[in-house]
Amino acid sequence: MTDQGCGCLIDDLLHGEDCGNNHNKGKVLVNPDVEKLSQEFYLRHLTDGLPIVPPTKERVLKFLENSDLEFNDLIAVLPPRRGKATVEKIAVNAVMAGCLPAFMPVVENSIKALSSERFNLAGVNATTHPVAICTIVNGSISQELGMNSGVGCLGPGNLANATIGRAIRLCMMNIAGAVPGVGDHATHGSPAKYSYCFAEAEEESPWESLNIEKGFEGNTVTMMGVEAPHNVNDHRSTSSEDLLDTIANTASTAGCNNSHVPGEILVVMSPEHAQTLERDGWTKQDLKDYLHENMTVSAELGDRGGRKLDSGLITNGKVRITRSSGDVVLVVAGGPGRHTMIAHGFGAGSQSVTVPF
Q1: Residue 292 and residue 276: Cα distance in Å, rounded?
Q2: Sequence-distant (≥ 6) Cβ neighbours of residue 90 within 8 angstroms
Q3: Residue 266 β-bridge partners
Q4: Measuring CA to CA, which residue among 205, 207, 222, 231 is closest to residue 150?
Q5: Are the beta carbons of 197 and 331 closer than 8 angstroms?
Q6: Cα–Cα distance list, 94 to 57, 149, 197, 204 (Å)
Q7: Which of 61, 136, 306, 347 is most enclosed, with most CB atoms within 10 A?
Q8: Cα 143 from Cα 149, distance rounded (Å)
Q9: What is the pLDDT of residues 298-315, one digit of tens each?
Q10: Structure confidence at residue 19 (pLDDT)
């Protein structure tokens, strides 16, 4: 790539294409015009529409220094394009997203998790459904990186949350080929596709954290294919059953993929709601069991999706939106306020994946 921003080497780095101009491998950009470069990358469909940080050689090398692998080591092969996600390509996208070099292990392991067959990235990227990739971080690394697990953790304002989530999306576009209208066919898309990343508030939770529940004690990333979060507002319930009924009834929505193909659902519970349940002696498993049993949709309304509802799922004219209590992925996060957030999944089309590092 020339010093002033020719797009050929970035194509080479991201897509494995050779522009034929005999540019040196590993050279990215030197002293680029930031506005011109962002516009050029945008016109080449290499951005999410927002300005990018130029992936200069110096910046990319700093990210490579924060990886335990070599720059050309293959992390994953990402559909639909089946692009090769090498450490270097991931670093380039992390730079573009505005990440700090220290964020590299989280981004790297997130991409690794997405390559798992159970996640079904091909389906998640190509569907007309507005499913987005959500990253949940556990372990000490969340505090080390200054991630937000408290007030506004699902919204703007935190560098780590915002840029890690954005880096994953740029990898989906530039490596996997999930460009809207090309490899990403979501009818409307979703704002959650810009960035969807937060940490669990482990110290605020009265229960075991998600990484412990999954069998890991250290740092983990859990990747889920879910819709944008929906609020559950309950400031009046004084009993656990009343609170859980509010959550269950909010989640029991016809038209979500879970209603006709039961699968995972994400529940992000505020510390105040968690304290109400813990006070009444509810374990994490208790409430997962309760939600599974009570999150139901009438069979008539549930059978409105793209697939015929399996009659074996119908009980007393209703269908559960999860297959078992294990489909209820529960984490505690957020600040003061009696709110919980739920995010329906991709039905049975995608399963969450947790990777330790």
Answers
A1: 19
A2: 75, 104, 107, 108, 111, 167, 171, 175
A3: 329, 343
A4: 205
A5: no
A6: 13, 21, 14, 30
A7: 136
A8: 9
A9: 998 888 877 677 777 888
A10: 40
